[in-house]
Amino acid sequence: MEKISFLGLGHMGAAMARQLLGTGHPLTVWNRTAEKAEPFVAQGATLAASPAEAARDADVVITMLADPAALDAVADAVVPELRPGAYWVEMSTVGPDVVKALAARLGEGVTLVDAPVAGSTDKAAAGQLNVLAGGDVAGVEHVLAHFGTVTRTGPLGSGAALKLVVNAAVLGGVALVAEAMVLADALGIDEDAARTALANGPLRGAVGRAFAEDVHFDTSLAVKDADLAAKSASAALPVMEAVSEQFRRAAADPDIAHADIARAVTHIRHSS
To answer: CA–CA separation, 131 vs 147, rounded Å?
Structure first.
């Protein structure tokens, strides 16, 4: 069984890493805040003191980090430690350009796979994510299958690219629902009536996400993802830029910044 190292135990990373416990794979974990790793150590994982230590002797290194800057910092430590034959599975939402730049840094014999996921923390906890995997996936597909359904997207970077498309649609839909509810409020429409009517139309999924509970998509990370999407297109995306601004305003409130995007919906409604 491959030795797996999982780096990044935030809301999504922790839920995903739990799917590897008890699989027979020796599991090493690392997180910038070491306390978040304690439950994994209690269940048999090994705690690494640094990203370099986590990557050393690992067969598969998985990263689930907040943003390109966090990935770049971890890469500085990890790249020198990866041995020939190792796989690096990059699952953060960072965009295809960052993935391709990372690939250019790797040594001979190291295989990079980009495999961000579609789905929130509830799907992660149930092992029901949609893994959007680009590159040479065959050697790690059995590992990725612990997280959910693996969708091969094409060459390296294609998974990261598709993740931006998916998140752009999700965030755009949620922002539109928020503004539709602003209009409903202004027109004096009963909230339950408005939500039911919207849920019975083409925005059903977005309505469900806009009012979801017990899931987590950090509002500040939503800003990052919307910005990445807007900047990645060859043409202007004015709607996406407006969506990014809506979430940016919500994230300026310290009580909302690290809360789920459903809280941002409430903020948009009450601040409009």
So the answer is: 7
